[in-house]
Please model this.
Amino acid sequence: MKHFDFEEERVKQEILKLKAKRVLIQLPEGLKPEATLLAKIIEKSGALPIISADPCYGACDLATVEAESLSVDLIIHYGHSKLLKYERVPTIYVEARATMNVNAAVETALPVLENWQKIGLTTTVQHVQTLDDVKEILLRAGKTVVIGDAGRLNYPGQVIGCDYSNAKSIANDVEAFLFIGGGKFHALGVALSTSKPTIVADPYEKRAYSVDKEAEKIIKQRWASIEEAKKAKVFAVLVGLKSGQKKLEEALDVKKKLEESGKTACLFVAKEVTPEVLMEFPTVEAYVNTACPRVSLDDASKFQKPVLTLNEALVVIGELSWEELCRKDLFEN
Amino acid sequence: MKHFDFEEERVKQEILKLKAKRVLIQLPEGLKPEATLLAKIIEKSGALPIISADPCYGACDLATVEAESLSVDLIIHYGHSKLLKYERVPTIYVEARATMNVNAAVETALPVLENWQKIGLTTTVQHVQTLDDVKEILLRAGKTVVIGDAGRLNYPGQVIGCDYSNAKSIANDVEAFLFIGGGKFHALGVALSTSKPTIVADPYEKRAYSVDKEAEKIIKQRWASIEEAKKAKVFAVLVGLKSGQKKLEEALDVKKKLEESGKTACLFVAKEVTPEVLMEFPTVEAYVNTACPRVSLDDASKFQKPVLTLNEALVVIGELSWEELCRKDLFEN
Model:
């Protein structure tokens, strides 16, 4: 519990204010080990806690249906900032800010950044409160620092799995990006969206490294998937039902376009797009996934068939060129 | 398409009658390879077909939420007979009766059945229409044949994954059961519910075999899981949200009982109970699954922690003895 701020007092006050009897707890995978402890805190506030055990990769995946089905009075969504414009069930977002100091990791990043002068700063919501300090360290090292704010996310410099608008908005003004946070997932997003060198300063592992080689590998895989899909005749267009991922109109539109270019296309709906789910359909030769774009980009090697994003499907039918796709944004769906 | 009756004409008529514009197709894993062909038939009837790609193990798992979210006018649920008392969305069940002849498989079962005189006959909905012929073959071989009807399922002799009432209703009148159908899954259910020798006559593989050794192995695994759970302090009680699997009251009840016997217990909700989902919670030492009992019984070896059925949890807290559980029914939840 010591690494993150779970805002116990605010949670208690909110439960009391709403007189909540049943509370649904939703956590990303990294915070699930704290689930039973967080449930106990809620129970002490007089409400019945129910933990959603399903995978949760973002605030796009708010457990509204579960909450309604279980007559829940309040959803406490941990680890992500608010994304949906409105919620059908009262919801509070506990962003789970990291309490650790990131300075040591940033110091180790300085030598890795030596070839570049103008640095763009990005991070996840867990570390947004550190950006001023990080900026200070970089300035002292003689760098110029830019933090983007495209107005779509909650904090300047923030990125989420599928939205790098803050990084993109300053991509032309910087030579490289420094991402503060754990793991490669978000840093790869920055690299893929901006085509700029991207360095991770990981405060958990206290080390810094580039993700550029991995980003390049993903680009090559995307090209290969698109080429393979061009040969496919039978397509399935996947629709997701998660609150922030449902794109039925876009799916119907790409289905029509695929059919107009001589392909067969079926609409599929899936709760989670996994290799196990897709392997049950031997007659389908390629998928277009209108739900989470990260499924296509990060898990390509796990799928037996090409799983394209919406924009990639437009390359298959010739509406977009590969070069235009690369300039546009692999994440734009 | 040739092995099963997909009732194309009835499907077309139903679409026309309801003037359905959008149709959701739901199929068990074994029929998913036919999904795109079935979609084409529906498209020819003038409706937009949407295929549910998620796993579907029974009519308990009717895709109502998906249908409502996509404004679907009709669900076509293939491969299972009606189970829910009413549906929130218009639904037709296409039972997908097998068109193949089962006689050859039954003939190969005769030598395996030689030690028993009184035989109980069971099958899934795919083969219920063959039971008269099968009975005839057994009678000609000098056997006595009993087909049970407890009134809970749609056809005499029918079993489904979690309901063996038709077999149980005649268990005292027979020496062994003959199950007509593919695979061990349902035959194991018959063996576990009745404690009688159970032989599969598999028309797909044209062979017959006993599942008794495997049933015995499962019983031993259940005993071991219960013993391990007795040592656990932190429990999670899993609630499923599938239309026919939601048992919130039972879950609340067993949570209370666990707590009264000195355990810690949290409520969890999950779309699919899989090893991957449960492994994210290192603080939980044992699970009680109030959703599908087959998850506990068939997949025990895949889970790192004990996953008990409701009745098994009662053994842990001493409300039921192991012997009583075995007499009762492992499937009763």
User: Anything to note?
Assistant: The first strand of chain A starts at residue 4 and ends at 5. Chain A has 13 helices and 15 strands.
